[in-house]
Amino acid sequence: MNTLMRNPTYLKLLAAQIVALSGTGLLTVGLGLLAYDLAGSQAGAVLGIAYTIKMVAYVGLSPIAQALASRLPRKAVLIGADLLRAAVALALPFVDALWQVYVLIFLLQAASATFTPAYQALLPDVLPDEEEYTRALSLSRLCYDLENLTSPALAGLLLSVVSYSGLFVGTVIGFLGSAVLVLVAVLPVVKVDQKAGFVERATKGLRIYLATPRLRGLLAVTLAGAAASAFVLVNTVVMVRVGYSGSERGLAVAMAAFGAGSMVVALALPGVLKRVSDRSVMLGATLALVALMAVLAVWFRAELPSWWAFLLLWAGIGGLYSGILTPSGRLIRRSGASADLPALFAAHFALSHVCWLITYPLAGWTGARLGMGAAMGLLAVLALGGLIAAMLLWHKEVAHQHPELSEDDPHMQANGGMRTHAHPRVRDALHPRWS
């Protein structure tokens, strides 16, 4: 960790992530208040449409945005996305119609669909050592969880002295701060294929992703994690306020328990992954999550657990969710050449959000219509399907041969000159497809 914290480029990028996440957290609170100001009792429907727009933008625009930006300097792409996000946040206090909110949300999420995969693809080049990169992934997960805990508190503090429009100013400051930190960072340069056409660039990440067994497995376990997290994010408020007759503070405590579980596992994972393979950790966490969801489905149909048991269960879901998602960057990093990583991260960004696009409405509809036990049961079945698919799709690393290569070929030499060898599965000219 000390080596990681002495890397000036990484520290600037980490700080950029933190201030941008803080801005995003303030935006979430401010957007809810703006929706209520414009739509009153229909604010929930407005936010539902806004978040659907967010998911559609993430799924549809991420590969396209990556293809458009692939020939531009990465620093320019990141700064441009931050400036667009800041401009949208600056415009939000002045809207007076719902359609304007929807347009601005679409622009904001289009910028985020550009920024996030580009940022994720940058880290492996900044941190070539896998151990340091693993620690960085854990810190990134920690930042997301801390933002979920601290942003509502920060928003509440600001609202005691300013109107909700002031929250958007805080959002602008966060995105501009992120842009400045990226500007002063010295980023590595990666050569890109200047001959590839737009369609090839836009689909390259998806083609590599879906042709790589470990990444198909990653998508399957991501679906399982999305099933559990969607239930927590959508239905916790109903369970706390109705089932436990709790207050807004009770809701904050429940979500804090979920985040605390996630943080504990994220901090422990770098040490665990030194001894246990990513596949074993992620499949094990998925299996445990499916089992826990099945138990909760039966439990919720009979009665609610005690409040303290509920908090422990939510912490357990958060921990297992983190065990599934945190190592994902390691798998993507091993699955493509450096120049292909932006396309791969964009593909994962889009495909993973398809999972949430499925599970969010499923969690909300079944919870409202069929009850919490049935909702958890249906999502547990979906998670089980993800686990089974992952076990079938994600093969263990196997030895292979290259009979077409001479013994002095660089690839053969890189693998000790052995005709039969094994290495992380990377889809390239020598390995166009893995069975």
UniProtKB/TrEMBL annotation:
InterPro entries, A to Z: MFS (IPR011701), MFS_dom (IPR020846), MFS_trans_sf (IPR036259)
Span of domain Major facilitator superfamily (MFS) profile: 1-197
CDD domains documented for this protein: MFS_MefA_like
Keywords: Cell membrane, Membrane, Transmembrane, Transmembrane helix
GO cellular component, as recorded: plasma membrane
Keyword Heme: no
Biased composition (Basic and acidic residues): 425-435
Tagged with keyword Cell division: no
Subcellular location(s) per record: Cell membrane
PROSITE patterns, per the entry: MFS
Single GO molecular function: transmembrane transporter activity
Transmembrane residue ranges: 12-36, 42-64, 168-190, 217-238, 250-269, 281-300, 306-329, 341-362, 374-394
Chain residue ranges for the region called Disordered: 404-435
Membrane topology: Multi-pass membrane protein
Any Pfam family: MFS_1
Name of this chain's protein: Predicted arabinose efflux permease, MFS family
Organism (species): Puniceibacterium sediminis
